[in-house]
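Q: What would this complex look like in 3D?
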Amino acid sequence: MAFFDAAFTDAAFVLPQALTTPQDVTTLRWATAGYRSAPDDTPPNTLWGARLLGDLVIRQGGIDAISLGGMLGIGLGEIGVSDADAALADLDRWGTADGREIRVTVIPVVEPMRSDYGTPLAGRGLGASFDFSSGLAMTRRTDPTLAFRGLIQRIDRNADRTGVIRISDWAERLNVPLQPVKFLGTGGLEGGDDLEGKPKPVAVGHAGNITPVDLGDVDIGAGIGPLRTYMVNWREVAGVPAVRVRGLAQTLVTGNPVLGQARVFPELGMFQLGGTPDGAVTADVRGDAAGGYPSSLAGVIQRVVSAMGPQLGPSEIDATAFAFAEMDLPGEVGWYQGPDDTTCAAFITGLVQSCGALLVARRGGRLGLVDPLATGDAQFTLTPSMIIECEPVPMPLSLRPLPREVAVNWRRNWTPLTDMAGLVPSADRSWLSSMHSGPARAASTKITRMVAQQQQWTFDGAYWAEADARARAQKCRAWLEGGPRAFRITTDRYLDQIECGHLGHVTYPAHELDAGAPITVVDYEERVAERRLTMIVITRPEV
Amino acid sequence: MAGAILYANLVTLGVGLNVFSAVEGSASCLLDPQPSNRARWAGGAATVLIDFGGPRPIDGVAALSTTLGVWGSLSVVRLRLSTVDATGEAGDAWDTGTVPTETNTDNLGNLVLVRAAGPVTARYLLLQVIDGSAPLIDIGLVVAGALWRMSQAPSYGYAEGRMALDTRATNGFTGAQFPVPARLNPRAMLWKNDMLSRAEGTGALRALTARVGAARDVLWVPDTGLSQAELNARSLWGPVGKPGDLMGAVRTAFPGWTRNWDMVERG
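A: Here is my prediction, written as structure tokens for the whole assembly.
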């Protein structure tokens, strides 16, 4: 991935945008100054009328996220608009724009007197320039850039005949019920009356000792008659490696189960017991496997957002970011949600916080996953001549002083048991009665020697294997031993491009940055018309 | 010669506005007060025909915020004012003939036509512009009306220039500078008219103040005797009042009125 700094032009930002819906309602096109597309553009000769007031500020992140992980939405605040002609009347009265898509595009001004400012929607070649240092000829272009794609929360009108567009980012789409598939309550596999209207369970990755949904005695047509049936996932799973009654593992069989046995139907996401249980029934499950079994953090999150919740399409997912996350965040993880209502956002937040990852909404409306501790080649470079201001900022309280030890729990127990059968092996009892195994620890002798206050950095890991939890702890330790520092840097470069999680390199004649340091972006704020980008970066160890 | 102000735009009061060979809601754009919301004509010719609904006094006509000159080709204009010919082609009241527009992209492509001899009475206005081989012509506003030709020219001490909306931040530590050009550094003029007559004080000046306020725009022509190129370059379209300010003239001495003007063009 590479970035190219923006041309030295000022920006009029426009909304080429919104309100295109199946109902074919009006598309509103507004701008900070009148913009008319070129005759051969799509759409041709179309006016974006001057209506927007003030600057547009795009922001994302929060330095605290570096220590917690979680989901980062893009904050866009508000866009002021003129309402002198009462253009907002219906938008305010009926809320016709609420929840609809909005796109913000930046148009570089190359020729101020053209109605497209020299930048048609299709972009334009400006000719070639010759770089004598490299001996290369380069084609220069001017293109509109999509600064933001999100959703309109609402449009309000003010007393002074102006209005405000309130905007949320694309991640808002995750605030929908996780599981749209509900039990019908008609009996059998659709559950009884008590389950009617409740969401079917969701299991992704490798989840331990979950409480499956009890469907009662059901004949699922396998020729073995009605048996006590449990659902672990609403559809096909990769497997159910263990079924327990009061903690006692049942023998898994492929035929007709009898007392002490269970038969798994992975294609249905269910299992049946051979007898009536005398206590809590739990199971380990290797979850959703329709179209393959994802088990990594990146894999299960992609599965959740594409198959459940908002059911995002491929164009709404940053495949490159997920591909990097696949490498940066290895290990088999698992998560489970029973027949209770929750949102997709809440489900995913638990997953990403389990290892300190960040789920980020990109400016262009795509969803990405990043590891804030990732290392790699710099995607952008900041030198002193590019920096308007650079100042240190405090690290999050949870990382001050730097923790001397990292602890990552593993093999989460989704149903801690208090009533276990006497035959449960003692080796299993500890985990079955706890919230998790572990933690896997990675302590730093270097930091231990340097700090007076000893603190621990803990993650409630979703890893199944101890080795994966330990590897994560060690990665965190290596990052801490690099002595991370945070800086707020303001520049006029890389506008429309910087996202949280991007890797860079900064050199500055102060704050011990003279020799340069690799950095990771954890927060940014871009003032579009002012052409200023302020980001908070954290240094990372040299690799 | 003295300066003049057009403060009652007859185009917005007209009963008929026709545009020929235009695309995409052009007529409405010509009535939109935002100059950057431009009408578009496909090809290198634009025609506007306006029916004012009755005889009106006119000696100032302007096409503002245009692409004339953008393409580097010679552009020409012909303006005709007619009394009864609804096609506007008679030009019996005023016919400029075909003359170069002398527009310049530095001046928003503004074209300002002034009838030096004073106003004529006409009902129909036909404005035809040809811009060489340009692929299109865009015009933001068409303005027409009677000029208030002031009895006194701007007093010495007036200032003309541009309001710098550009910004230029400096890193106080490294000294590096980070300029940001504005989309437009609008032209501006600061001037004073001393000794305006009693009739002007109770007539045009009072009417201008009442009609225009701080929300509407006027066309300021600093000298009605300027060449076409200088008319385009120095005439400004914009407000002459600011919200909250007291708009009016000062009775500095018997028998005249003094009016201070502070104008930044609207682009």
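A: To summarize the key features: The interface with chain B takes residues 8-10, 12, 32-36, 39, 45-47, 49-50, 109, 111-115, 117, 384-390, 492, 509-510, 530-532 of chain A (CB under 8 Å). The mean pLDDT of chain A is 88.
Q: Very helpful, thank you.
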